[in-house]
Amino acid sequence: MKKKSPAYLWLTGHVRNVGDSMLRRPLADLYRETGPISVWSGAPGSGYEKGLRITNAESARSFLAWALEFTLAAIRGKPTFVFNAGEFGVTKAYFFGLLALAPALALASAKGSNIIWAGAGVKELRRYFMWPFKTLAKRADVLLWRDVTSTGLMGRGDIMPDWGFGLGPGGEKASTIKDVSIAARRYIAISLRGDRQQPSQEWIEAVGRLALRVNRKLICVVQVEDDEQMAQYVANRLNAEVVAWGDSNHWEQERRIRLTYSQAVLTLSDRLHGLIIAATEGSIPLGWCEATTPKVANHFEVIGADWVGPRSDSIIELLDSLDEARIEALSTLSLTRVHEARCRVDAVRRRLRAAEHH
C-alpha cells in the first residue's frame, strides 16, 4: 500500500491566547485521522503548541523547513494544504509566506491536491497586498468563512460556524453537554479584554445587581495572558473570584477555564472565544459588555444566536432584565443553537475527510 503524503497545516496564532490554539486544534485532529500531518505553528515547542496538542514529530521546527518539505511533497505527489483558520489579516508572515509557497501551491493544485481554507474570518482588505490570498481563495477546493461579512469582502466562499463550536465539554470533539441544570451552576463568569477601556461604574453595578438577584457568585476568567490585570481590577470591584493565567501551557489553562464555565450559568465577555468556549460548556454566552465589538455578533449570527452580541438596547437595561425565567429560556435556546452549530461543524469534518479519500 502506497504511503500517504502528509497534510501540511499552517496553524499559527497568538501564543498568549487560549482561544487561538483551541479553535485550530480541530484541524490538526481531523487531518491526523486521515494520515500524517506536518504543522507550522509559528512557535515550536511553546505552550501554544501544547494547546494544539500536536506531537514533536508533527511540529515543523521552522517555516523554511516546513515550506521546503511541502514543496518536495508537491513535486513527488499530491499533498493536502490547509491554510490557517481564525481571524485573518494581512501580515508580513502571511504575505511573504504565501509568496514563498506560491510555486508549490500552483503545482499541487495542478496535480489535484486538496487546497483547504476553512473557518477563517477576514478582518479587512489591504489594497495592493490581497492578491496572494485572493489567488489562494480561487484555488481552494473548500473555502468556508466563519462570519457573515467575509464572503462579501472576498467575493467567494460559503459560511460555517467557528471551529470552536465543534468542541464539546472539556475541549473534546465527540462529547455532549450532560449537565444542563441551571440550579447547579453557581457562578456568573466574566472575561474582559485587557486592551480595552475599563468597564464603567454603571456596568459594574449592574453586574453586581444581577448576581444578587439570581443568587450567583461572580468569577473572573483569564483566557488571554494580557487580560490578567483587567480581571484583577474587575474582581476587586465586584469582590469576585479569579481564575488567573497560571502558566503558558494553553491546554492546561483551557481545561481550567472550561471547568469554570461548566459551573457558570452565564458568561459576560467581549472576547469571541471566551463566549464560544463558555457556550460549549453549557453557559449562556452574553456579549453584553461595553467594549464588545460587532465581531461577536457577526460570528454568533452564523449559528442563529442573535441575542449574544451588543444591540441598540442599553446594555445596563439588558443586564437588569435578566431573571431566573429569562436565564432558563436563554439556556434552552443557547443549548439548541450550540448543538446545531456542532452538527454543522461535524458536516464540514465529514466533507473534508471524504475529500481525502478521493
Number of domains: 2
- Structure classification: alpha/beta
- Overall pLDDT: 93
Under CATH at level 1, the class of the largest domain stands as Alpha Beta
What is the element string, with H for helices and E for strands? EHEHHEEHEHEHEEHEHEHEHEHHH
What's the tally of helices?
13
Largest sheet: 7 strands, parallel
Blueprint of the fold:
Elements: E1 7-10, H1 18-34, E2 37-40, H2 47-52, H3 63-76, E3 80-83, E4 86-88, H4 92-110, E5 115-122, H5 131-139, E6 142-145, H6 150-154, E7 158-159, E8 187-191, H7 201-213, E9 217-221, H8 228-238, E10 241-243, H9 250-261, E11 264-269, H10 272-280, E12 284-286, H11 294-301, H12 315-320, H13 324-355
Parallel strand pairs: 1-2, 1-3, 3-5, 4-5, 5-6, 6-7, 8-9, 8-11, 9-10, 11-12
Name its key features:
five-stranded parallel β-sheet; seven-stranded parallel β-sheet; 358 residues; alpha/beta; 12 strands; Rossmann fold; 2 domains
